[in-house]
Design a protein that fits this description.
Largest sheet: none
Oligomer: single chain
Radius of gyration: 37 Å
Number of strands: 0
Helix content: 55-70%
Distance between the termini: 111 Å
Number of helices: 4
Structural class: mainly alpha
Shape: rod-shaped
């Protein structure tokens, strides 16, 4: 099926014309289905027409690459957060299970004498 170029006077049979028609209609989904990411401009079309197709193709590639970088970053941040949370849980669990360590013998004896004196004063 031969589709004339919607932006210039070219009547050559080339798949870029259908892509340009989809782009002119604002139908990016149809353009993607027709192969926008791998599109090559029609050699018979005007320079502005070819530039429009190349610009649309490159813009879409850039947008998809940016989305991929965003998803990779989000996954990386989630992984780092999970690793930090796991490290915090393992570091916190031994201290939570330990009871207060007992006083050394000398300190316990001194505390007992101080308590005994305080009781004697208030009695």
């Amino acid at each position: 099926m031969s589709t004339p170029c919607p932006t210039c006077d070219c009547n050559a049979k080339h798949p870029a014309h259908r892509l340009l028609a989809s782009l002119c209609e604002g139908d990016l989904d149809a353009a993607m289905t027709l192969g926008l990411l791998d599109a090559m401009p029609c050699p018979s079309c005007a320079a502005g027409c070819s530039a429009q197709l190349v610009a649309a193709r490159d813009a879409r590639r850039f947008a998809l690459a940016a989305r991929q970088r965003h998803h990779a970053r989000a996954e990386r941040l989630a992984r780092i957060k999970a690793e930090r949370d796991a490290a915090r849980r393992t570091a916190a669990s031994p201290t939570a299970q330990q009871a207060t360590p007992p006083l050394p013998t000398a300190a316990a004896d001194a505390l007992a004498r101080a308590l005994a004196k305080a009781r004697a004063r208030h009695a």
